[in-house]
Amino acid sequence: MSQLRVLVIDDEWNMRNLLRIYLSNEGFHVTESSNGSEGLKAFRSQTHDVVLLDVMMPDMDGWQVCKKMREIAPVPILMLTARGEVKDKVLGLGIGADDYVVKPVDPEELIARIYALLRRSSHQAHAVVREQKLTFPDLTIYPERRQVVVMNENIDLTQKEYDILQLLAQHPQRTFERDAIVERLWGNDFLGENRVIDTHIKNIREKLQLAGLSYNPIKTVWGIGYKWDDSSYYSLKV
């Protein structure tokens, strides 16, 4: 079994050193970066299984780095923060972070959350192998490749945006409550508010529309949640 690779991005040397010790003792290969720009360079140049990303950094904060990373690859991102406010967690999760750990870091909790992210990512990747593609008017989803194509053009989605899109598309006409979507994507350890789903849905709709999709397949079920419904396409064609 190959050694799992972790990218640690934090401007505090003491914190990086502490994390390196925790992770190395667990058998991870650790790459360290002291700021956001350096971390992005390492992220682009090497393959990593998970990223530990500090929120408060001088040159580029963790939210900016997270957003840029989500434009590159769907690697699980765990935010490190001294902030415990729900609004900060919702902001991070809304732009693509997968989980949070509040400083000072408890080593057992940190390792447990990393393994939970890795299991979740692996489960989501393997659960859809039997489904080669999901086809809708002007829209095709390839689960094995985690690829979305609109009008023969690839659409760049964050990991969570893709997961939501695929979940809804695999169950047409089924209404999912926000809490149900959160539980499937983040598990029971999610600490934020379920309204983070609304942000992801808004981003998905905007990207599909910008790509030229003439209808909105994700319908809002007021007071409940969302469902997949491509019937509006056929109404447009009448």
Descriptive overview:
By secondary structure, the protein is an alpha/beta fold. The protein folds into two domains: 5-126, Rossmann fold (3-Layer(aba) Sandwich); 134-237, Arc Repressor Mutant, subunit A. Helices cover 43% and strands 20% of the residues. The chain has nine helices and twelve strands. The protein has helices at residues 13-25, 36-45, 62-70, 86-94, 107-126, 159-169, 178-186, 196-210, 231-237, and strands at 5-9, 29-33, 50-54, 77-81, 99-102, 134-136, 139-142, 147-150, 153-155, 176-177, 218-221, 225-228. The strands form three sheets. The chain has a five-stranded parallel β-sheet, with helices on both faces. Strand 1 (5-9), helix 1 and strand 2 (29-33) form a beta-alpha-beta unit. Helix 2 (36-45) packs parallel to helix 3 (62-70), helix 4 (86-94) packs parallel to helix 8 and helix 6 (159-169) crosses helix 8 (196-210). The N and C termini lie far apart (56 Å).
